[in-house]
Every structure is written in structure tokens, then in C-alpha cells.
Amino acid sequence: RKEVEQDPGPFNVPEGATVAFNCTYSNSASQSFFWYRQDCRKEPKLLMSVYSSGNEDGRFTAQLNRASQYISLLIRDSKLSDSATYLCVVNNDYKLSFGAGTTVTVRA
Amino acid sequence: EAGVTQFPSHSVIEKGQTVTLRCDPISGHDNLYWYRRVMGKEIKFLLHFVKESKQDESGMPNNRFLAERTGGTYSTLKVQPAELEDSGVYFCASSQRGLAYFSGANVLTFGAGSRLTVL
What we know:
The complex is a heterodimer of chains A (108) and B (119). Chain A is globular and about 40 Å long. Chain A starts with a strand and ends with a strand. The relative contact order of chain A is 0.34. Chain A has strands spanning 4-6, 11-14, 19-25, 32-38, 45-50, 54-57, 60-65, 70-75, 84-92, 95-98, 102-107. Chain A is mainly β and 108 residues long. Chain B has 119 residues and is mainly β. In chain B, the strands form 2 sheets. In chain B, strands 2, 4, 5, 6, 9, 10 and 11 form a 7-stranded mixed beta sheet that branches. In chain B, strands 1-3-8-7 form a 4-stranded antiparallel beta sheet, with no helix packed on it. The model of chain B has no long low-confidence stretch (mean pLDDT 93). The chains are: A mainly beta (108), B mainly beta (119). The A-B interface holds A 2, 4, 31-32, 34, 42-46, 49, 51, 87, 91, 94-101 and B 4, 33, 35, 41-45, 48, 56, 58-59, 91, 98-100, 102, 104, 106-113.
């Protein structure tokens, strides 16, 4: 079983829509969690950190469910610039484990 | 603030040759990490430096890979001799504090990556 699993998508949504997707992790002892965003052939960039039950930053909301071992990301009022691959990242033993990414495409 | 800088951005070499990748972390970041993404796979951890010391090198695939961080500043990752399966994108990242700390100072900032193609 992979350490971090994500629905690869793609999620194709119109501008202004809400899109949400999940990530599951296998290690119940994982200490902290992150969502990174990666544009094509670019480096991963931090979107948000999740240390407790969740986090909200503008149009982006992350929720953590430790009992079920999943983290979700919700994007409200999608913009064209939100088109990217979203990487679920888990802190396992003080090194990061990455999911393969969820691709989101926002269309005009 | 300058970001994490990696060089070269792309390297194409023949199987059996040697390649050295360089990473300049953000100034003042004691923690430096190397990660790798091979085609079609997720990004995987290679190793972690704290200053000039190797904190964790459990992700290094084999002894053809050698990482150094002399003086605790920039780091190099040498692959010798390169094999076809070494092709991929090698990312370097740095942070002020390690992932044992739950604060913004532990957030990793990634470089743009060095794409390695072994023919």
C-alpha cells in the first residue's frame, strides 16, 4: 500500500465552481500534513500546512480526519489560475511522503 | 529573498557517465533536502542535511549516489556511474527548522529541479 494515495483526476470544473478532493495516508503516526501545488514542469509550492483538524486560507480549506486517515482540500470560487496539480504531502518520521497528485483544470 | 537555486536545469548524459547536481539553499536555512521524481512516480525523499551533517540518508537508492554539503552551505549530488533508471527530476529543498518542529519555520521551499536524462 502506498504511503499517500490521491485520486489523480483530472477534475475539470468551470470558473466559479467548488471542487474538492481527498488524500489518504497509511501511517497513523504521521505528524503533520501539507498541500503543495505544482504547475507543469515547475517546483512544488506550499499551498497550506495542516497541523490540527484543518486550516483555511481564503478560498482554500483543508480538513484532516485522523481517525479515517484522510485529508481533504476544497477550493471555492475556482479561478483559471487554480489549474494545477495538487500534491498531498505527509510528514512521516521527519521526511515528506508525497502523493502522486490530483490534477485540476478550471475552464472559462 | 532569493529562493532555492539548482544547477543545471537539465542534463543529458550517456549511461556510465558522471553527473553532479548542485543546490544553493535559501541563506540561513540549516536544513537541506534532496528529493527525486522519476517518470510516472511520486516525488521520493533521498536525504536530509542539517548544516554539513547527513541527518537521514535512508532514501538514497544505492552507492552510486553521493551527496555532500561542505561548510553547510551549498550541496552537491553526484551520480557515478549513471544508469538509465536514474533519469528523473531531482529537487532540492531547504527550511530553517526540521520537520520535527510544528511551525512555519519547518516548511520546505523547493528549487525548480534538475532534470536528468540518461541515454
